[in-house]
Each structure stands twice: as structure tokens, then as C-alpha cells.
Design a protein that fits this description.
The complex is a heterodimer of chains A (221) and B (241). By secondary structure, chain A is an all-alpha fold. Chain A has ten helices and no strands. The chains are: A mainly alpha (221), B alpha/beta (241). Chain B: Keywords: Amino-acid transport, ATP-binding, Cell membrane, Membrane, Nucleotide-binding, Transport.
């Protein structure tokens, strides 16, 4: 084994790598935020069996959880493109990640909701709260606390899965790494640095999530 | 006044209330006793519209509770309810528990809501627990919190659903004392209870429920001390032994 490492080119292009890392973080944060909102709504319609939305929720969950994320990105980019709807690589990857995140989170949230005793709902109702207030002030805060850790796992999954953006020419961390290594053929060096950056991003996210949970969740549930 | 007129309620094929009629006037305390499955808790759930009814009427201060045009959320502000399983909100402090509904339901300012909550908590003896989280408290304290939380909405009526049944025996006293205090305050109350001695002490009327009907109703002296029916006597001898 006489491979000679050359790090100079990687360090020269570090700003572009970091920019790619930023896009990675950006797209995964956004995909989580949108996914959480959609998943809360779908979980509620699914649990309360509100037709026809509950059918939509079920179909969504089934497809999202049982097909590869890669296919969903292809569908969003090439599939819709074939139908004349041209999404940018960023929007295509974002849509696919939102689709998958929502599918998984619906089930996580549904479990979370069901773990809150019905009596919490009754007690809130008996104080005169309307259904929206019950969810907003009593059920959701407790639910989010219970599913917080599964939710951060989903976040990490989104960060790592956004690397599939490489396939549709998105300029996130993997896409940038791919482009830069093809200019210098220092493949190993570039991908080692990219792997370290992924590691740092996920650690940063988990660390922030831990801090936030201390701020957000007081008391015991 | 709460007026219950020939109310019938079924869960599927099982009829749990078979034509219940009774009145509770302002300032009165009614205790409902009876075995499990007799329909007494279900009646409370029907009074504040957590459960629907199949026929009959429940009237609270001229409001027909189950009329589709009734705003049930608004109606429930008149009817405080405390449940068997203490339902404190575990993510909020004791003070926040009691201040939440006055603030978001009645739209009071934060300061107003907090001052009402403080007053009610002091009233039930939790004046030194404002910043605690309820899960750190005993069952008796949590149940008193539930009472204060309901009182903070300034209800006209209070419904108590076996609120001492899930408590350790040594904690029952403090909760019953709180109810006695409410009686002194003149609160109108319906108490579903297994505490026969308590029912005898504080009630104006006692109703004995058996399999979805009112078997016997009258003053505590009539129903508890001198029951007329065999079923009532049997039940009392069982719970008093």
C-alpha cells in the first residue's frame, strides 16, 4: 500500500465543502420542520378517522415507509420532470425528504398521542377548552416530549439521506464532494473530509437537540 | 339548577342509564352511591357532555346540555369536574396548571389568571407548592390541585367522580376535608363516592344507583340510615363492613 495522501487541494476547496455542508444542514432542517407540521396534522386525522384525509394519511405512510428514499428523489426530479414539472435539485430533494419524514413521523406521533391518557383530554375539556386548545396546550407539549428522541433520530436520518442529492446534481455536501474530487482525483481525501463533516453535523444537531430539550421540557412525564 | 329528566344512555348494546331523573338545586350537595357499573360516573360524564345521551334531557341553568345548538365548551365553564384519576398536567407547574384555563379559556391577562390560581391553591392548602411539578406531589395533593384548577374557572357547579378511590387510604382524609370546605363555601356539588360516612355527613341528598336506575333517593338519614329497599341494604352492608 503506497497511497500518498495529498490534502492541499482539499484544504484549498474547504470553503466550498463547508458551503455544501451548510446546504445539507439547511435542506434537512427544513425537511424536518415541514415534515413535523404535516405529520401532526396527518396523525390527528388518522387517529380521529376524519375521512377522506385519513385515507390520504394511510396511503402516504404506506408509500413513504415501504419504498426507497432514492426512488422518491428520482420520482420528484426525473419522474415529475417527465411529466413536464421541472423541480430544481434542491426542491426535488427537499420534497422527497419531506415526504419520507412525514411518513415516518406520522406513525411516531400517533404512538405519542396514544400514550397520553384520554383522561388528560377529558380533564382539559371539563375546564372549557375547545379541541384546538386541548391539543395546543395539553396534548402536544406532552406528546413532543415523549417522541423527542425518535424525532431526533429522524433528523439524523434526514441529514444522512440528503446525500442522495448527489444523484440529481444537488450542491449539498456529497454533491460538492463529488464535483471537487472529479477535478483533482483526490477521491479518498475528499470523501474522508466529507465523512468527518457529516459526523460533525450530526453531532452538532444531537448536541443542540439535547440542549433544547433541557430548555423545553421541564417537569416529569 | 341541574335537572336530569329521564336520561337514557347506552354503550353499544349495553344500556347503562335506564331513565334517570333527578334535580340538584343551587347550594345543594348530592352524593351518588352504588356499585361499580351502576352508571353513576357515566351520569357525571353526560352532565358535562363528555358523553352523549340517547334520550331524555339534561338542563343546566336553562341550558339544554345535549341540544346540538348548545356551545358545550362554554357550558363546561359552569361545570367544574374532578376525576378519579388525578389529571394534573405533568408538563406544567402547579401554579401553571391552575392558571392555564382562566388565561386561555376566559381570556384573562396572565397576572389576573395567576392571582386567581394562587388564591384557589392557597384555599386548598397548596400555597407552598406553586413552582413544583405535580408528578413530585402525593396523590392527595394532586387531587387537591385538580380541585383548585377546576375552582379557578369559577364554576357554578362541581362534579366529583370518585375522587378518593385511587388514593392511598391515608390521603383520603385531606381530600374529603377539602370537599367539606367547599360545602361550607356553599358550592353546589354532585359527588359520586364510595365514602359512605362522608356522604352521610355532607350531603343534602343521597341517591343509590343500581344497574342504571335510581333505586332509592332522599336525605342521608332516609337512604343511608334507614334504607327501604333490600338492594340498598345489601350494598350498604357490603361497603360499611
Amino acid at each position: 500500500m503506497n497511497y500518498e495522501f495529498h490534502w492541499n487541494t482539499v484544504f484549498q476547496h474547504m470553503p466550498e465543502m463547508l458551503m455544501g455542508a451548510f446546504v445539507t444542514l439547511h435542506v434537512s432542517v427544513l425537511s424536518m420542520l415541514i415534515g413535523i407540521v404535516l405529520a401532526v396534522l396527518l396523525a390527528i386525522v388518522k387517529m380521529n378517522n376524519i375521512k377522506p384525509f385519513s385515507y390520504l394519511a394511510t396511503t402516504w405512510v404506506e408509500i413513504a415507509r415501504n419504498t426507497p428514499a432514492l426512488f422518491q428523489i428520482y420520482m420528484a426530479y426525473f419522474g415529475l420532470g417527465a411529466l413536464g414539472i421541472h423541480l430544481s435539485p434542491y426542491i426535488a430533494v427537499l420534497s422527497a425528504l419531506v415526504f419520507v419524514n412525514t411518513g415516518y413521523l406520522v406513525e411516531t406521533f400517533r404512538g405519542g398521542f396514544q400514550s397520553i391518557p384520554a383522561t388528560q383530554y377529558h380533564a382539559s375539556k371539563s375546564l372549557g377548552m375547545n379541541s384546538f386548545q386541548v391539543y395546543r396546550y395539553v396534548i402536544l407539549p406532552q406528546m413532543f416530549r415523549r417522541i423527542y428522541h425518535p424525532m431526533t433520530n429522524q433528523f439524523v436520518w434526514s441529514i444522512l439521506m440528503s446525500s442522495l442529492g448527489i444523484l440529481v446534481g444537488m450542491n449539498e455536501l456529497s454533491g460538492e464532494t463529488q464535483r471537487l474530487q472529479s477535478l483533482s482525483f483526490r477521491t479518498l481525501e475528499y470523501f474522508i473530509v466529507a465523512a468527518c463533516l457529516y459526523y460533525l453535523i450530526t453531532k452538532l444537531v444531537l448536541f443542540s437537540a439535547g440542549l433544547a430539550s433541557k430548555k423545553l421540557f421541564k417537569g416529569e412525564i | 339548577m341541574i335537572s336530569i329528566q329521564n336520561v337514557r344512555k347506552s354503550f353499544g348494546d349495553l344500556e347503562v342509564l335506564k331513565g334517570i331523573s333527578l334535580d340538584v338545586n343551587k347550594g345543594e350537595v348530592l352524593s351518588i352511591i352504588g356499585g361499580s357499573g351502576s352508571g353513576k360516573s357515566t351520569l357525571l360524564y353526560c352532565i358535562n357532555a363528555i358523553e352523549t345521551i340517547q334520550s331524555g334531557k339534561i338542563i343546566v341553568d336553562d341550558i339544554d346540555v345535549h341540544n346540538p345548538s348548545t356551545n358545550q365548551d362554554k357550558l363546561r365553564q359552569k361545570l367544574g369536574m374532578v376525576f378519579q384519576q388525578w389529571n394534573s398536567f405533568p408538563h406544567l407547574t402547579v401554579l401553571e396548571n391552575a392558571a392555564l384555563a382562566p388565561r386561555i379559556v376566559k381570556g384573562l391577562s396572565k397576572d389576573e389568571a395567576l392571582s386567581i390560581a394562587e388564591k384557589e391553591l392557597i384555599h386548598v392548602g397548596l400555597g407552598d407548592k406553586f413552582d413544583m411539578y405535580p408528578t413530585k406531589m402525593s396523590g392527595g395533593q394532586q387531587q387537591r390541585l385538580a380541585i383548585a384548577r377546576a375552582l379557578a374557572m369559577k364554576p357554578d357547579y362541581m362534579l366529583f367522580d370518585e375522587i378518593t378511590s385511587a388514593l392511598d387510604p391515608e390521603l383520603v382524609g385531606e381530600v374529603l376535608d377539602t370537599l367539606r370546605m367547599l360545602r361550607e363555601d356553599g358550592m353546589t356539588m354532585i359527588c359520586v363516592t364510595h365514602e359512605i360516612a362522608f356522604a352521610r355527613d355532607v350531603s343534602d341528598n343521597v341517591a343509590f344507583f343500581n344497574q342504571g336506575v335510581i333505586e332509592e333517593m332522599g336525605t342521608p338519614d332516609q337512604v343511608i340510615n334507614n334504607p327501604q329497599k333490600e338492594t340498598t341494604r345489601k350494598f350498604l352492608s357490603k361497603v360499611l363492613s
